[in-house]
Amino acid sequence: MWYEYAINDLQHGQIYRRADIVSILKKENNGLSENSYIWAVGNLVKLGLLQHEGRNRYSLSDGKQKDVYSPLYSETTKVIRDKVNNKYPLIGFTMFESALLNEFLNHQIARNTIFIQVERDVGAFVFDFLRGDMEGMVMYRPSRKEYSRYWQPGSVVVLDWTSEAPLFSDCPHDITIEKMLVDIFCDKTIQLTYSKAEYKTVVDTAYERYRVDTVRLLRYARRRNKENEIGIFIPERWRAEDNVIKG
To answer: Which residues pair with 118 in a beta bridge?
Structure first.
């Protein structure tokens, strides 16, 4: 198709807005409707010639389509997720466990900790429910001292949930890659489970393996007052909107 030849003008390693690609398509075949060009962009993604790199962000494909991150939870975490969802079906919460980071770390986490981030007003109720329903240690917003003193392998930690977090629309209790990359930097309790010196390695590996929506990530980082600090760790080509070619 004609639009397959138009992308020869694109450069590997560069991020483009849809409007930029539409402009290039118009130079190749002018006079079509705007919807035709938008359709062509979508078809280039379906053909694997373009990669969708986040909201209104595209790059020239290298032949390896990145996956959407899907957390591989332990059976215990899945059970907790389902129990809390059945007990409190209307509240917002997200599951995370430290073992998820092993995919991204050089130094592996041998002993898992399960975190459930819950809407602030109901965190205490979820804590009481889990403490009465489960064996093992359950902690609620522990201080560093409390965590070090009472932690045991498989501990469950209830934390406050920050609103406006990037979530999956179909699995709202599963953590997204954007939320994970921000939370492990911001949350002091989660930081106790891994070496923060490896944070850059985690970010680099995440961007290499998965589709990461940088705009979405930085918006959430801004919500947690860490946008500038986290932005430093984002690989150069993904850092900010001013890295995107202007039309």
So the answer is: 93, 160
**Whole-model pTM above 0.90?**
no
Structural domain range at position 191: 75-241
Written as one letter, the residue type at 77 is T
- Is residue 7 within 8 A of residue 22, CB to CB? The reply is no
Element (H, E) at 102: none
Q: Which of 33, 64, 95 is the last residue of a domain?
A: 64
Handedness of CA 171, 175, 177, 178 (dihedral sign): positive
Q: Which helix (H) or strand (E) holds 126?
A: helix 123-133
- Do the domain assignments include residue 70? no
Last residue of one domain, picked from the residues 64, 96, 113: 64
Between strands 114-119 and 138-140, the pairing is unpaired
Confidence band of 239 (pLDDT split at 50, 70, 90): low
Contact between 161 and 120 (Cβ < 8 Å): yes
Position 141 in a domain: yes
Q: What is the CATH number of the domain that holds 8?
A: 1.10.10
Task: Write out pLDDT tens, residues 110-162.
Answer: 899 999 999 989 999 999 999 998 888 999 999 999 999 999 999 999 999 99
CA dihedral 180, 186, 190, 193 (to 10 degrees): 100
User: What is the structure's pLDDT at 152?
Assistant: 93
* Residue 117: DSSP 8-state: E
